[in-house]
Amino acid sequence: MTSWQEFTDLAPRIAAVFRRRHAATGNLCFLATLRADGSPRISPMEPRLFEGQLWLSGMPGTTKFRDLGRDPRFCLHTATVDTHVADGDAKLWGTVHDVQDLDLHARYAEDLYQESGFDLRGQVFSPFYAADITSASAVEVDGGHMDVTVWQPGSPERVVRKH
Fold first, then answer.
1. What is the distance between the alpha carbons of residues 2 and 156, in angstroms, rounded to a whole number?
2. What separation in angstroms does the CA of 131 have from each of 31, 88, 145?
3. Which residues form a coiled coil (predicted)?
4. Could you tell me which CATH class the domain 4-162 is placed in?
5. What are the residues facing 136 on neighbouring strands?
6. Are 55 and 108 in contact (CB under 8 A)?
7. CA distances (Å), origin 56, targets 4, 44, 95
8. In the prediction, which pLDDT does 22 show?
9. For the chain, what percentages of helix, strand and coil (3-state, to nearest 5) are there?
10. Phi, psi of 92 (to 5 degrees)
């Protein structure tokens, strides 16, 4: 599995598009999970990058976290409202694993508070999902063409240009 830090080293172009779009939307992304019956679910969420890892955390007991507890596979898509995709967009596929480390939770909560003023200090996060990235893609439109950058473990990023 590939952590966020490893991913940024292996797929810098896609990681840059993801970071740019993630920041531009106030960290809003759309998370795709699988319901118990196997049908897809799309949920808004605000993933965070912290200590070299992508974290899918949020309110416990939500359907998206029950989905991930049952089936750890996900797709995360940066929020896009521009039909011309002028700022690009990115998708990450992967799996999650729950990290129950109270010291990490405390550091995360303190960082969140310093960054946003949202105070979760002193709380235990359950679940607290770290994302392992298994593949990714990004779209960038430039002039009269569109570049689709694709990455999978074991291969470098490759760009497919569409006119």
1. 14
2. 12, 22, 32
3. none
4. mainly beta
5. 92, 151
6. yes
7. 12, 11, 11
8. 93
9. 25, 40, 35
10. -120, 135
pLDDT band at 50, cuts 50/70/90?
A: very high
Closest CA to 55 of 68, 42, 66: 68
88: left (phi over 0), alpha (psi -120 to 50) or beta: left
Return d(Cα 94, Cα 132) in angstroms, integer: 5
Asked if the peptide bond before residue 127 counts as cis, ω within 30 degrees of 0, the response is yes
Q: How many Å apart are CA 40 and CA 22, to the nearest integer? A: 22
Q: What's at 85, amino acid-wise?
A: V
The pLDDT, as a whole number, for residue 117 is 94
E strand intervals along the chain: 29-34, 40-45, 48-50, 53-56, 73-78, 89-98, 129-142, 145-151, 158-162
Full-model pTM? 0.93
Please, what sign has the CA dihedral across residues 12, 32, 89, 141?
Answer: positive
Q: Which of 148, 146, 145 minimizes the C-alpha distance to 159?
A: 148
Domain boundaries, the chain: 4-162
Alpha-carbon distances, residue 1 vs 5, 116, 135 (angstroms): 12, 30, 10
